[in-house]
Design goal:
0% strand; 173 residues
Length: 173
């Protein structure tokens, strides 16, 4: 991961507040998280940004976590036209029809139990690994699951922030 100052980090540090808010919302839809990150600009290094993100994630309330989860589509159903969710869920792209049907069923059961989508840092995971994770996690208590979701969101935010600070201006267009 990037630890120093990059053109992407410099761009984020100096961008107008509205642009920075938009960029942060694409990383995490929690306005509380975004406000905490925005308030600490400028960041000397990408690592400082990552640490601020981790700290902000640790402070989110249950309501803030729900706000953050609202920005994530169910596994196996990335948002149409959203390259980020498609890229992150690519492990489901080649899954069999049976696995996709099973994931849909598990997603619905999970949502019924916990009241929100199953959230996992899907980057690099196969469809089978995601299925196994939801099977295991559906047995958790709501309190256990909320802390696992917090951890998974933190991982997702780091991946997305890395992409933000490593992206050149041309790639950003």
């Amino acid at each position: 991961m990037t630890s120093g100052t990059t053109p992407g980090l410099a761009r984020f540090n100096t961008s107008p507040e509205g642009d920075a808010v938009t960029a942060l919302h694409e990383v995490c839809s929690s306005s509380a998280w975004g406000s905490k990150i925005l308030a600490q600009r400028p960041y000397a290094t990408a690592e400082a940004l990552f640490l601020a993100s981790d700290a902000a994630m640790a402070e989110l309330t249950a309501e803030d976590l729900a706000d953050a989860m609202a920005g994530h589509p169910p596994i196996g159903r990335p948002k149409e036209g959203d390259p980020t969710s498609s890229r992150e869920q690519s492990g489901m792209a080649g899954a069999s029809a049976e696995l996709k049907a099973e994931m849909l069923e598990l997603n619905l059961a999970y949502q019924d139990k916990f009241g929100h989508v199953f959230l996992i840092c899907a980057t690099g995971k196969t469809g089978e690994q995601m299925r196994d994770a939801i099977r295991e996690r559906i047995e958790n208590s709501p309190e256990q699951e909320r802390e696992i979701v917090r951890t998974e969101l933190g991982k997702i935010n780091r991946i997305r922030l890395t992409r933000l600070v490593e992206t050149t201006e041309e790639e950003n267009r």
